[in-house]
Amino acid sequence: MGKAIGIDLGTTNSVVAVMEGGRPTVIINTEGGRLTPSVVGFSKAGERLVGQLAKRQSVLNPENTIYSSKRFIGRRYSEVQSEIKNVPYKVTAGSNDAVRFLVMGKEYPPEDISAQVLRKLAADAAKYLGEKVTDAVITVPAYFNDAQRQSTKDAGQIAGLKVLRIINEPTAASLAYGLDKKKNETILVFDLGGGTFDVSILDVGDGVFEVRSTSGDTHLGGDDFDKRLVDWMAEEFLRDRGIDLRKDRQALQRLTEAGEKAKIELSNAIETTINLPFVTADASGPKHLEMKLTRAKFEQLTADLVERCTGPVRQALSDAKISERDIDEVILVGGSTRIPAVQALVRRLTGGKEPNQSVNPDEVVAVGAAIQAGVLAGEVKGVVLLDVTPLSLGLETLGGVMTRLIERNTTIPARKSEIFSTAEDNQTAVDIHVLQGERELANANRTLGHFRLEGIRPARRGAPQVDVSFDIDANGILTVTAKDNETGQEQKITISGSTQLSKQEIDRMVADAQAHTEEDKRRREEVEVRNSADSIAYQVERQIQELGNHMPVNDKARAEQLIGEIRNLVKTNSSDVARLRQLTSDMQQIASAMASTAYSKATSAGAQAGGTGGAQSGGGDDVIDAEFKQTR
Amino acid sequence: MAGAESSEAERLKEEVHREHEMYLRALADFDNYRRRVERERGETARSGKREIILALLEVLDGFDRAVQQTSGAPSSLSEGVQILHRKLLGLLEAQGVTPFESVGQAFSPELHEAIGSVQSDKDESGIVVDEVQRGYCWGDEVLRPARVRVTQ
């Protein structure tokens, strides 16, 4: 059985996406692009070219290169007179007033042209996936009538695809944001593409979308913004240098590209430089174009274009008989919605609502179509949509810090385990404090549960091995198990609902962690420095005991004095990191000096049971990731 | 009773079948994904490089124009520009980027982007007569098509 794909069959460009492992992926076409021009060219040799290749030869072959077939599909010849004026190819009337493209003496219905584009998209998808593509969901504008929908479906069939469903573009965009799960919401979809502008208002409830109203402008889009920039640059150049670059085809092309690039840059920067060296030449020599363009200037040049979006939005609201306050969600579609002034306008017209724009606006419709295709092909409903843990999971370790076992955004089901040990000599129980959150300090995070593992055989600190595992299943149910590797003693706790936090709560916790990054880092460092100082003090103390009288009195006194200082600093939770570091390094020197003394003594006096073992266990401090705090 | 049991068994059988189906599907998806990731690992490095090379080609275009337009300039200056031009070209060639000839060839949309046509009586139609922006290959990939004018 083949894969089902989702296709956004656009007026200028088309996009194809597919569900893979439960996630939508946009497919790269054979030319390496994510957008495929919706263009079909018939070469004089009788060859058919689709997409980028068709576009490259369109200048040579304008009468045989069909683009914008979407503007004609499913319509009557008598309805499309104004469209015909805008295209260089011949459009005639077939039987029943049907639209026909006349290419080299042959008539083609628009369905045939769209079918060529669909066939290429499906073939590229098959190549990308390495498997056959049989089924598709294709999107159409919400305002398409039955004839236009039927013709689009026919195009799919001509392309050899089983069209699972024709869905509305705004519905697809809503699906991409998972809004089908909402109960009774009103969604405004603002779609400003390369050449068309559509506004749709939808109601969603129980997974069903209903179009309340649509409005738009069939000839408004990003290309108009580019043209404004080209004209501005050309006028400036004409004024300064007396040459009209628009008359030079090559220069015009470079201007258009530079304009588009500047527009894109101004979505992220407030100023850009347009740089076209050797753009033209006259008798006096080569001429260069270099000009600064600020976002403010760009906004001034295109203010009326942005303003043209206002009418259709107001119209759609009034047709749906709602006010801006009734809108629950706003979705931005189309590359031109990246323009800051457009976004500001949308916010203004929708009562300041923050629009959904996390999915690439050029691809959001195809992504939604792929999700719908997955649902219809039984992939999405069947395969559990793999969830992620919204926040990190871990436990409290020595010094009140959180040690993370499962990082946030890990795909579940997931399992992770780590070995921990005791923090005190002869500690027979450990407390497991299960935490969720992004803060470094345990008490700043959310407590999911507590339990206690008892029956650990008394031993030196650091010696027992407690294996703690976090296992979170596909439903988000977390089981934390602690097991003493020596005795086999085991305790566990099961916590449900670790993934069921509200989005606001998660966002708040993540933002909180970000706001405290510096402070947390500093405090965690303090804890770690105290822990390692304490650990080395413990190690040296044990070595002193082992060496007994074999140790020079002076060395012993100095070591004990340092140990005392460390103990004191640890006990008072001192934040004097510099002093603690100094003490730790002094102690390390003493420890290694003592180890060599201990070694020479051991060899001279014969093997001393446990001597080397003890040193190893103490020196194993670095291996132990974290230690539990003794609570008794 | 027996009927209820067998229908329950049927239901479970079906469920197992469905689950197994989903499991296989996930496995297949993963396997395909893994293979593609492997294949794309090389391509990812390449695509990062492509971006910077494409940007450098624009600089190279500038040199192409400069060489053309400064032919009347003092020779020491135009020579300098030419040396810089060759240096950049050599740097890109070391990366496997090579320009290809277009003028005199038949127009092919795989290699060429037409930006205009020229009426010609003597030449047959569909021949590239003018290259306004050079085309480049990168290994066996067309990195950037040439911008050309073609006879009609």
SSE blueprint:
The complex is a heterodimer of chains A (632) and B (152).
Chain A: E1 3-8, E2 13-20, E3 23-26, E4 36-37, E5 39-42, E6 48-50, H1 52-56, E7 65-67, H2 81-84, E8 90-93, E9 99-103, E10 106-108, H3 110-129, E11 133-140, H4 146-158, E12 162-168, H5 169-176, E13 185-192, E14 197-205, E15 208-217, H6 222-241, H7 249-265, E16 271-282, E17 285-294, H8 295-307, H9 310-319, E18 329-333, H10 340-349, H11 364-376, H12 379-382, E19 393-397, E20 401-406, E21 414-420, E22 430-436, E23 446-453, E24 466-472, E25 478-484, E26 490-495, H13 503-515, H14 517-547, H15 553-571, H16 577-605, H17 611-619
Parallel strand pairs in A: 1-11, 11-12, 13-18
Antiparallel strand pairs in A: 1-2, 2-3, 2-4, 5-6, 5-7, 8-9, 9-10, 13-14, 14-15, 16-17, 19-20, 19-22, 21-24, 22-23, 24-25, 25-26
Chain B: H1 2-69, H2 75-94, E1 97-100, E2 112-118, E3 128-133, E4 135-138, E5 141-144, E6 146-151
Parallel strand pairs in B: 2-6
Antiparallel strand pairs in B: 1-4, 3-6, 4-5
Search tags:
heterodimer; A: 632 residues; alpha+beta; six-stranded mixed sheet; four-stranded mixed sheet; elongated; B: 152 residues; three-stranded mixed sheet; 20% strand
Q: Mind telling me the C-alpha Rg of chain A?
A: 35 Å
Helix content of chain A: 25-40%
Question: What ranges of chain B have pLDDT less than 50 throughout 5 or more consecutive residues?
Answer: none
Shape of chain A: elongated
Oligomeric state, counting identical vs distinct chains: heterodimer
The greatest interface here is: A-B, 28 and 35 residues
Total count of strands of chain B: 6
* Rg result of chain B: 29 Å
Task: Estimate the mean pLDDT confidence of chain A.
Answer: 86
Hey, roughly how much beta strand do the residues of chain A contain? 25-35%
Q: State which percent range the strand residues of chain B make up.
A: 15-25%
Characterize the largest beta sheet of chain A: strand count, sense, and whether it forms a barrel. Answer: 6 strands, mixed
What is the count of helical runs of chain B?
2
Global structural class of chain A: alpha+beta
How far the N terminus sits from the C terminus of chain A, by CA atoms, comes to 63 Å
Question: What is the tally of beta strands of chain A?
Answer: 26
Give the overall shape of chain B: elongated
Number of helices of chain A: 17
Low-confidence stretches of chain A: 381-385, 603-626
Write out the strand line-up for the largest beta sheet of chain B, numbering strands in chain order: 1-4-5
